[in-house]
Amino acid sequence: MAGETETDRVTAAMVALLEKKHKGVKAPVDVIDKWTLLALQQYFESQAYLNSMLMSSSEDDGSAEGAVGESEADEADEVQASTACAAKDARASIPIQALKVEDDDEGRPRQKREARDDRGVLIYGATGYTGRLISKACRDAGLDVTVAGRNAASVRALALELGLPSVSFSLDNEAALDEAVGRAAVVVHCAGPFAQTYSAVVESCLRKGAHYVDINGEIEVIEAISKYAQEAEEKGLMLLPAAGFDVVPSDTLAHLVAERFKSCYPAHFPSKLEIFFHYNDQGALISRGTKNVMKGGKRGVYYERQDGKVVEIPAKPTPLKERKRCDYGRGLGLTVKQANMADVSSAYFSTGIPNIKCFMSDIASMRQLRCVLAKDQTDGPDAAENEEGKSFLFATVSSDGKSHRHVSASLACPAPYKITYVAVVWILQEILQENFKAGFCTPALAYGDALVGACGMKHDL
Questions:
Q1: pLDDT attached to residue 422
Q2: Of 155, 188, 415, 459, which residue is most buried, by most CB within 10 angstroms?
Q3: With contact defined as beta carbons under 8 Å apart, do 231 and 431 qualify?
Q4: What is the separation of C-alpha 146 from the centre of its chain, rounded to a whole number of angstroms?
Q5: What dotted CATH number matches 120-240?
């Protein structure tokens, strides 16, 4: 092409190789301006990936349809030789847009980017109870993990125990935070209370180009992270808060019930969602960190969503005989009371339903209160308790008006802390295998009912 620069030739060759790798055909250089090139910047920065991709192309014997021919192979050699000197210019000139592969159910692009071999998973807050469970599960799954936290001695001890690399820094040290995040493809944030810690980590991920996952269950934090949606989508990054028990099973159930309602009653608008929680003795056990968050919560109020907005209402005692009951699909008939669960926020994004309330069985509430008030608290449930623990959920989606319609379903799943580390590991594997949606996501918005089988959940829909 006339006036073609070194950067143009490098970019054109890269596109041809990418098209060949993904679709088995050659990409005509004259359609390069039709490509979206979010990932190219990262390919240039990842010499290991470039070398492996170029090597796989040069090993092709040319027998397959669309194989790189002699001229393209020569250009591939030129790319390999010139990448180092051209990378700086290329990063400056390539438009950073979304690499669109397919659209999700909401019409947003589902992102597919090549895995970056030199960037793994950073777990911040790894020395806490849940952080340790996640770190060990990630290691056992063979993920490339670095454990991190504020306390250098605790982080080193965990790293030695698990045989993992580590880094220590405080979240108020922006330079150290950015350096660590810049080496990660995904950051798992486990350091609460999240209302005090989320913003530093989210903003660093957006600056340094890493996906963000956390295990928070705080309504206001999910709402706050949703405000970064546009920036994350523009940068091709996923922000996925509440990837633990709060809210993976309940978010999944809400999504399933809402979708069933829409398919059964397409002429009716699903205006109300109610979600109910119950645990057995072991499932109700909480960690020290969860206890601190619960003790620090605002007293005497309930949060619910009304007409699409989170509202705060005074908590008023309800006589036992007047309380709602829920059988959780098991014929239990347990009395329940309203509870401040994170689904008041997350389920709205997952389902679009404007009115949401959450409830917990009185038995489960008392079991958790007993843990909160205990003077001598362990770090959290032991391994046997996490295996024996069970959680039970029930959800109802309904419409208003004279032609009232509703759909209900129950779901059973492992203990909260077990499902947390199982869910986080699965989500990380999906992200690292290029399956993610750019922007702000809830678990169900990102992965839908795939979470059911992945996390050992069972429902009756």
A1: 98
A2: 188
A3: no
A4: 18
A5: 3.40.50.720
